[in-house]
Amino acid sequence: MTDLYSISGLVAAPNVLGGHFYRPPLPVRYVARPALCERLLGGLAGRLLLVSAPAGFGKSSLAIEFCEHLPEQWQSLWLGLSSRDSDPGRFLERLLSGLQPFYPGVGKDALGLLRLRQRHQPFAFEEWLDGLLDELTLRLDPQQPLLLVLDDYHLAQGPVLDRCLQFFLNHLPPGLVMLVTSRQRPDWHLSRLRLSRQLLELHEQDLRLSDSESTELLALQGSELSAEALAVLLLRSEGWVAGLRLWSLAASEAQASGVLSTLAQGGDGLIHDYLLEEVIERQPAEVQAFLYETASQERFCAELCDALRDAHDSAAILRHLQAHQVFLVPLDEQGKWFRYHHLFSDLLRSRPQPSTGLHLRACRWFSGQGLLDEAIEQALRAGQPDVAANLVQNLSEEQLLAEQNVATLLRWKMDLPDSLLTSTPRLILLYGWALALACQLDAAEELLVQLGSFLPARDSAEQEGLLAQWLALSGVIARGRGDSAKAQAYCSEALSCLPLERYGQRLMCLSSLANLAIVHGDLWRARGLNREALELAQRVGNPLFEALAHYDRARVLQARGEVLRALDEVRMGLQRLDNLPVRRQYAVRGRLTLYEGHLLSLRLQPEQARQKLLAGIAEARNCRDISVLIGYCVLASLEGRSGNLSEAFAHLAEAERLMHIWDIPPIYYLAMITLTKCELWLRQDQHELASVWLSRLLDTYGGEQAAAAPEFHPQLPLYIQLHLATYERLQGEKEQAERRLRGLSQLAHNAGGQLLAAIAQMQLTAMLRDGGREREAQQLLGSALQSAAGGGLLPFFDVLSQHPEWLRGQLLALDATPLIDALLQHLPRTKQVTAPEEDDAALVDALSAREQGVLELIAQGCSNQQISERLFISLHTVKTHARHINSKLGVERRTQAVARAKSLGLLH
Q1: Do β-strands 328-330 and 48-52 pair in parallel, antiparallel, or remain unpaired?
Q2: Cross-strand partners of 199
Q3: Which of 458, 476, 478, 455 is nearest to 467 (CA)?
Q4: Full-model pTM
Q5: Closest C-alpha to 425, from 397, 385, 460, 404
Q6: What angle do CA 11, 12, 13 make, to 5 degrees?
Q7: Each residue of 791-807: pLDDT tens digit?
Q8: Is 300 helix (H, G, I), strand (E, B) or coil?
Q9: How far apart are CA 898 and CA 885, in angstroms?
Q10: Where do the coiled-coil regions begin and end (predicted)?
Q11: Which pairs count as long-range contacts for 372-375, CB under 8 Å and 24+ apart, including other chains?
């Protein structure tokens, strides 16, 4: 589908969209061109079939005939182009959409990226195409090749699209061939293709009808001419297919042979001009009026035509035009949508018409159908930017802030004049928020300055309202810039004076203040702000804002180390979105899904985490939401822990590329990506490289003049300290590493950041154990288990993999907790022993008398509660004994323990 429908999030009916890849049928009484089709067939061994000739020489009809007679193994994709496709982005979106039925899912990420570009920014089409071509190379099957038809390329042709398709053509993968029809030769460098016989060209001379073909066409049309008139007509027409058809239509209405002779023997331009006028003028008056009134539309249906003409007979007139073959081209299988033959519409449009009123009527019709993109375009074509402004203003700030799908508004911005953006305070604020959410901070601030031209306002209430909104937006911009003091001041003041109906902006201020509270280590204040935001969202009953509040609460809970509660919070947020349309893209759903993946990675569930992260990245990218950064960085860390370092760096490279394309200021992403790279470099033993960049990060985010941590990593300064300690430990600077880790653990604990405290404590635990300080290591492990009681398993990752048996022994000596049980499940299973016999005896001796008693009752099928009652021990103690039995026998479940015990002779 075209970008107009896809980026607006509106769902058009199938009959609206079906025409974009619909191959029209051959004209009635078409004269077949088998010789030309045979030549085209020979060109399928190359890359490009180029059919270029002036209007009306049957280029499209030949392409249709050729597609209908392709060899059995060939598929074809038809793209009929228009002037709207001159934007390479729009063209490539259509191309990717057309490829989906042949190769489902191809270019999915590329398509999302393309939809988020902004026309005023440069876009690396060649780089984008390179990735797409690589994907196509893997998906194309040379045994079932595809013919890509670009019909009427001249309508879209331009320097940028020419360069784009030149690159596409130069790197065309096997199994894909292009057929291009155009009135003018594309500006491509084709010499190399000619020399390598990869190009077949057909020109005007090739397409001219021979005398026999022209005679056959006229005969099929039912025209009767004298030999003299026929000779003159063949001479004047010069094999021009459209001219002969037009003449035949006009002649069919003529009543006297003298008229036919006059038509056939007319002067220069007769076929092109006079016959066209004869076709139009010979139609009934109401049909003529219909033609002129609808000519301005690129496509139309009966309902739209009725709205344009303020009439109810458009369907009947369309049937008349179809019956009389008056250059009506169908755009769908249902015969619902049409366009005029380009040559015919050119002639219709050449006569001056009062088009402003027609465009405004079309605007109203499209608006009524919910197709705001088309409505805005019609308003602009009518020269009515104020009408376009009113359409844009139908989107409230609250709706924008709730959905945070700024891609839609930014795409509209491309089609609107810049002067429109500053025409009303509402538009300034609307686009200011869109730009701020898109992290276009300079543009947002420049737009916000324009608000001053509307001050002082007409009354004090309006003035206070504008100032309050200015404060809210300025506060969010200041948070993006890392200016904590301004952000704190502006957001706090905005909350004190924003009216209640501006709940969306109030929620943005609460979210920014909560984020700053995490940066400053005040997690209790962040928690209070989260609670206030959730209560506000629940009062207004907006599920999107409720979901955003749950997302913010999950981030605070995660910072505090309460990973399981954070997971519950994320899932509650997603549950609030269950009743929203699945087909729509929502930034908050993308964020929640990403964060669920992040939390699952903290629970050491890599596959589930990866699945959620990829899904979240896809939705966030479609919404142009910077939260994709979390997804890529967590994916990189996951791959790093798995040893897939090249894949990890590839994720970071993609994140950085995306930030460049979206023109995101480096303050948002550079530190976060760099810190993740340092983590990977340390795993890769590139210690010096990590040291250099960790020092630079420390200079920026440490000390008295430290910059505020970025929004998506508010605890970044503490993690810099953590990685510095890792570097020092790897360099053998154990004392320095120990001091840093102890300080970091205490600092994180004091701030309520229990997860980070646990990570520092476990790093120190490993150091102490390796240094022979066993007792201290055991004590510190106990502290780490308390810090991580909220469910975070990541702090134990290195010890789980490097010292599993030591950790198993320590955990089995402790009372059971959900965290200890989860860690034991992540430990490698004790290897089952089948020989020699002395090892079996050792296993038998390993079970205590109490464990033996519990095992016997388990074998009898007793529940834990029944075992507790029979042995007069607590239920907790029963569970602990059962866990120890499973671990010692190297099994996971009760039934396995019984079977294993019987094989060892422990049970009879």
Answers
A1: unpaired
A2: 48
A3: 455
A4: 0.62
A5: 397
A6: 125
A7: 999 999 989 888 888 98
A8: strand
A9: 10
A10: 720-747
A11: 372/8, 372/10, 372/412, 373/4, 373/5, 373/7, 373/8, 373/10, 373/411, 373/412, 373/415, 374/4
